[in-house]
Amino acid sequence: MGCESCGSGGGTPKGCQSNGTCGTDGCNKLNTFDWLTTYDISDNDGFDLVEVSFKKGNHKYFYHKPQRVPAQTGDMVTVDAGTGYNVGRISLSGELVRLQMKKKKVSPDNKFYRVIRPATERDLESLKHARELEKRTMVRARAIARSLDLDMKISDVEYQADMKKAIFYFIANGRVDFRELIKQYAREFHIKVEMRQIGSRQESALVGGIGSCGRELCCSTWLTNFSSVTTSAARYQNLALNQSKLTGQCGRLKCCLNYELDMYIESLKKYPTKARYLKTKQGKADLIKTDIFKKVMYYGYKDKNGRYNVIMLDPITVQSIYEANKRKEYPDEFEEKKYFKETTVEEPEHQFEKDLTGVIELPDEKPRKRRSRGNRKGSKPKGRRSKSKRNRNSGPKNKGGNSRKK
């Protein structure tokens, strides 16, 4: 199920030579499936642009692939990076690239870097060495940023395969003057430094992890467009406004709160929205909760004895009472919707075996005596005096401290 890169170990991924995506998409972020490559179809147009993913799907860019380069979907290739070369995997090729560019609003007339050649063993070894340096570089980069008293956090570091350039991803509340920081990084690591500011959601997408649902984070597997999430989404779904349960690993509200929100809003249109209060001769009832699954509305009111009662009403009854209240008419009582019928369940008679002659009676349990702390063995009572001492000192005393007899 897992591969060597995800730490679970043991298994071999399907179709990726143990260093790409597996059947559970646990090793590749924002994975794409080139289904056209499974068919024996020749490409007549010959679209010369391919999509190349880097660092197991963290970043994807489009490159021009010359016809002389023998590379297909899933192959590791060496591409031109402007300031050197980088190594990535072709994730899409052919006509699917045209659709992907249309989705991401990228014009085919733009200038793209080219694919140089299929990756050699030397290129793959250089890429492996660059990935091993990233963690140590990130730890050292955080220490340098802290020494300069900069209000920022280095989230991730990505090296090029030729180790001539590195991208430092950081999080900050506002703008940060990191000119001195870049000089320190260039002097320390001997590379070209590029700083990119990201948000907390983008950081979770880069780092990855497991959500409270038990699956991988949506932002690191398939979610690309981050929409705003508000607490009103939780109120529509009758969720408790508990910050620890509503926030994700990024510290913001969970993106999955918006997944079912449209269904809740569409279902709530069938319920009276202005019936916040209902009045009858029994009393005034307040709306507590609307359950769209049971199709009932919960109201609470105080009776004549001062007890607080909760009743269930269907939307039709609520609408009729609300319309009557608008006409200043008050029904005699609330017509509660009953879902559970009172049924008597007959207990089956126990059939004993023939050899069983009597009924087993368990002995009555004796109530246990509570043992006080002073009655424990080896312990002395504190704060108590013997009767002889109390009787000796019970008489009135004079100024000298001796008792006086009459």
UniProtKB/TrEMBL annotation:
Basic residues composition-biased segments: 368-392
One GO term describing the cellular component: cytoplasm
Residue spans of biased composition, Basic and acidic residues class: 345-356
Pfam family, one: PSP1
Source organism superkingdom: Bacteria
Compositional bias per record (Low complexity), positions renumbered to this chain: 393-406
Region span, Disordered: 345-406
Domain (PSP1 C-terminal) ranges: 113-198
Protein name: PSP1 C-terminal domain-containing protein
